[in-house]
Amino acid sequence: MNIYINGTAVISAQNHLGEEAFPKTVHVPFDDHFRAQEPSYKEHIAPNMIRRMGRAIKMGVSAALRTLEDAGISEADAVVCGTGIGCFEDSEKFLLSIIDHQENLLTPTAFIQSTHNTVGAQIALLIKCHQYNMTYVQRGFSFESALLDAMLLLAEGEAKHVLTGGIDELTPGYLTLQKRAGYIKSSAYTGERLRDDPTPGHYLGEGAGFFVLSSLQTTATYARLQAVTLLHNPASLALAVNAFLQEQGLEPAAISLVLTGHSGDVRYESQMQALQLGYLNGCPQLDFKQYCGEYMTSGSFALWLAASLLKTNSAPPALISSGTVPTNIAHVLIVNHFRDDDYSLILVSRC
Amino acid sequence: MMQTRVFITGSGIISAIGQNVDETLSSLRACRTGIRKIKHLQTVHRDEFVAGEIDLSLDELMHKLGVYSESYTRGSLLGMIAAREAVTSAGLKDINEARTGLISSTSVAGMTRTERYYKELFENTKHLGCIDTHDCGDSTLHIAADLGITCFITTISTACSSAANAIMLGARMIKSGKLDRVVVGGTDALSKFTLNGFHTLMILDREWCSPFDDQRRGLNLGEGAAYLVLESEAEVKRSGKPVLAELRGYGNANDAFHQTASSPEGFGATLAIRKALAVAAMEPSEVDYINAHGTGTPNNDLSEGTALIKVFGDRAPLFSSTKAYTGHTLAPAAGIEAVISLLSLKHNVVFPNLNYQNPMKEFSLVPVTGLLEGVKLDTILSNSFGFGGNCSSLIFSKASA
Q: How far is CA A295 from CA A140, A203, A204, B68, in A?
């Protein structure tokens, strides 16, 4: 069966408030992390809730509700979320209060919001969706697991419109800890190609990307979500990509653009580099983490980008890392990975 | 579409009432609770609350498994113990001879370790490894590595319904032909984080919990892990192995009422049970026993009881909550109760709802309060409801392939 992306919205380090699929000016953070440019929440969330909610919840709920609007629907048949670290800000807050107050005189708000299913739950509450509700939390597979589940729901006929997305937030504490663990670059990002970076560490990012996946094509349809696969520690990424494309009856030459998840951390890039210089060498490529940073659900940013490029049938040359994108964008392949363990392939095609 | 049946061929469990399936059965038959004074968790509340804590230290858990590394959190170790038992009992020798996945679940994740060293993480390098074991995916990766599973790995976190959703996804992956076999369940260790969290919500009972009792005061926390091995009909036929039961139905719904409270009318619970019955193509009257979520909080038991009346009318089947044995183990609760349900099916026994005295004034539902042996049990419904309105129900039936 065909599965369509009928709506999407994203919150990332880029400014997405304009009309264009991608802002005319690319935002370079000149910092060691990509903080999301948060939209105004007041159109979608009540003021008292905005004050109470952690950023992951606000970003997730806001992106989800904007996605429904974009798809021109007011309700969904299922809500399926993915998040790598969940509501970290609330977890930190409650944990610190436990430590600072020796487990006494605590208030429950941060605890209530710290559970990983909070974003999905709040979406269900706000749109009164009593149907299927799920949250995936498997590092670099969190968003992609949600996508697989959403596709399964559509194939089963359990749902016609599934609201699905990925959310992760960065907090000062999380950033500091990631630095102490040696995962973050010691310098600021200034716009260079991530694939060429010879140093360890990545630039931490955050964001929320949501989608309405449907079994029906509408006037709002962006693209067709053709296939998703998760690869845990693949022996050869190139062979896996080859098998994936063959299953779809495609050769690398048919791919108009590859969205490559180079993290910029030289320690984890050998498979990606081999693929980029070898099997997919002839394909135009775009290193999407230059625009959103590295986080466990960065695949949701990549899918938003793929859907937007396919809908507008244009790829701003300034974004492209290598090659020339053909005039007609037919298939976009996303090759993502998290720390050389969790690889995922997503094929998105023009309708 | 011709759909395969999904069979359960193995189970594994560790909780406060036993470190394997046999010990669990003995405790249940003896109506012996595992909820007692807290011994291993370092908390200022240890004399204030009781809990279903497993009487093994972190070192003892590692010793039991024969693994020694700081990178194993308590949740990972519990998960590995239960998952190993499940895989062994299913007789899976070569884990990758068929497409075999792992779908685990957790809500506490690595917090047990993070909460001990959090401040230190910013001050010295001694426990920096915590940063890599904090997230939910970590325990699943350890369990997968221990079992040698690489084909499909994911983790679900929908609060207290998590393991039910892992079991459900496993069944759907098999039915859709994406997997032949899948290890499904969940793991959570007792933590200061959750103990204090539930305390701030004022839903912890300081004494033994008493689900469905009119005077119930709240829940007792527990810890544990439980996994099932699910296999497709074709896989079971190929191997010719005996099956424990068939997973007939599953339903997932959302109460969409409140972040931490269930609706008094049990909307989400009713919907989840009805969905599970629809998938099983069964009438409510075909359910012989319900292993209820029954946490012992005023809110849950009222909401769940109301849902049971909505679905089953005035002819509710036998039901009991086994939370007063194990405590509420959060994410793995549905896995633990699935294993208990399989024991009920196999031995035709209903384990009583402990500590029950007074019927709830809102309705006439009365749980089973004494051990019932020799009951004809063909089909069992198991409920799990969580924060965020996540409600899931599972239906298990006696079966042979």
A: 8, 9, 6, 30
Determine whether the interchain pair B197/A108 forms a contact, defined as Cβ–Cβ distance below 8 Å.
Answer: yes
Q: Give the dihedral of Cα atoms A91, A96, A97, A101; nearest 10 deg.
A: 150
Nearest to B15 by CA among B343, B399, B372: B343
pLDDT tens digit string along A134-191?
Answer: 999 999 999 999 999 999 999 999 999 999 999 999 999 999 999 999 999 999 999 9
- Three-state DSSP state, A26: coil
Q: For residue range A30-62, what is the model confidence (pLDDT) as tens digits?
A: 999 999 999 999 999 999 999 999 999 999 999
Q: What is the CATH topology of the domain spanning A4-349? A: Peroxisomal Thiolase; Chain A, domain 1 (3.40.47)
Joined together, the tokens standing for residue B311 give: 């679905």
> Between residues 79 and 138 of chain B, which touch chain A (CB distance below 8 Å)?
106-107, 109, 111, 114-115, 118-119, 121-122, 125, 128, 131-132, 134-137
Structural domains in chain B, CATH included, are 6-239 (3.40.47.10), 251-397 (3.40.47.10)
ipTM surpasses 0.95: yes
Q: What is the pLDDT of residues B216-232, one digit of tens each?
A: 999 999 999 999 999 99
Query: Which of A84, A99, A230 shows the shortest C-beta gap to B152?
Result: A230
* Tens of pLDDT, residues A85-95: 999 999 999 99
A46 contact B CB<8A? no
Annotated domain spans of chain A: 4-349
